[in-house]
Write a structure and sequence with these properties.
By secondary structure, the protein is α/β, with parallel strands linked by helices. The protein is built from 12 helices and 10 strands. It has helices at about 35-45, 60-70, 90-100, 100-105, 125-140, 155-160, 180-185, 205, 210-220, 220-230, 245-250, 260-265, and strands spanning about 10-15, 20, 25, 50, 80-85, 115-120, 145-150, 165-170, 190-195, 235. Helix 1 links the parallel strand 3 (about 25) and strand 4 (about 50). The longest helix has 18 residues, at about 125-140. The chain is globular, with a radius of gyration of 18 Å. Pfam families: Aldo_ket_red.
């Protein structure tokens, strides 16, 4: 659990690689073009300093433009992207070349990407090893500063060659808590980042009586309570929105605190993998 009283928009988490990542970020999945650029500008104006994108989203250039348009200096913004593995095994040199395509799209100033993740564990063991070696080489060269994974389960993590990933990004919210993976990562110093923390606002979840009662208690909306839950669990959290009002609301989570009863009640909603709302491919071979 995180020390709830110390949380604020500037809160950061120090990774095992030495960098410190902002605890709250903006997700831009399915946002493209002007929509993605505008979302980044809105988030940075609201005080966010962390944006999460991916090569697969095809909006890295839009994110980079948003940072430039915002007037916030690039060095003050944490940018994460992801490399999507293919079923066909790629050589380390091919992966490095693919990683380099993200650099000019995201950063025209400092020449680095703060964090690069393997988007999923697809491609088999040999493929994952080749990709990870490319990641480690890019980190050694300095143009990627921290490296991690997404949608990796314990067996994937155990068989990955060194170095230990800085972070594992997985679907996380009260109905899908991925407890074995979270516990493994926390024991091994791997930060946990929650994607789809709002459970995609699915009606049955947002109208769950447990959540509704806590929202009424704190005069907050379901999204704010769910983000706060992730933060107090010690996760980095990246709610996705391109709506300026929702971006603002998602950042308005530092003026209240969930007490032990609230946290216990939300923790009790876990349905395991049955509560997932996304592809959640943590169990692929």
């Amino acid at each position: 659990m995180s020390d709830a009283t110390d949380l604020n928009m500037a809160s950061r988490l120090t990774l095992n690689s030495g960098q410190s990542i902002p605890r709250l970020g903006l997700g831009v999945y399915k946002a493209a073009g002007a929509e993605a650029t505008s979302a980044v500008v809105s988030a940075l104006k609201e005080g966010y300093r962390h944006v999460d994108t991916a090569q697969w989203y095809e909006n890295e250039e839009d994110v980079g433009q948003g940072v430039r348009d915002s007037g916030v200096k690039r060095k003050q913004v944490w940018l994460t992207s992801k490399y999507f593995p293919e079923d066909q095994v790629k050589s380390t040199s091919d992966v490095l070349a693919a990683l380099r395509t993200s650099l000019p799209k995201l950063d025209h100033e400092d020449g680095h990407i703060d964090l690069m993740l393997i988007h999923s564990a697809a491609g088999g063991q040999e493929g994952r090893e080749n990709i990870w070696r490319a990641f480690a080489q890019a980190q050694k060269e300095g143009w990627i500063q921290a490296i991690g994974v997404s949608n990796f389960n314990i067996s994937h993590l155990e068989r990955l060659p060194g170095p230990i990933p800085a972070l594992n990004q997985i679907e996380l919210h009260p109905w899908c808590q991925q407890r074995p993976i979270v516990e493994y990562c926390q024991r091994h110093g791997i930060a946990i980042e929650a994607y789809s923390p709002l459970a995609r606002a699915e009606k049955d979840k947002w109208e769950d009586p447990v959540l509704v009662k806590i929202c009424e208690k704190h005069s907050k909306n379901p999204g704010q309570v769910l983000i706060r839950w992730s933060l107090q669990r010690g996760f980095v959290v990246i709610p996705k929105s391109s709506n300026p009002r929702r971006i603002r609301d998602n950042g308005d989570v530092f003026d209240f605190c969930l007490d032990k009863g609230d946290m216990d009640a939300l923790n009790g909603l876990d349905r395991g993998s049955g509560g997932a709302v996304t592809w959640n491919p943590v169990d692929q071979a």
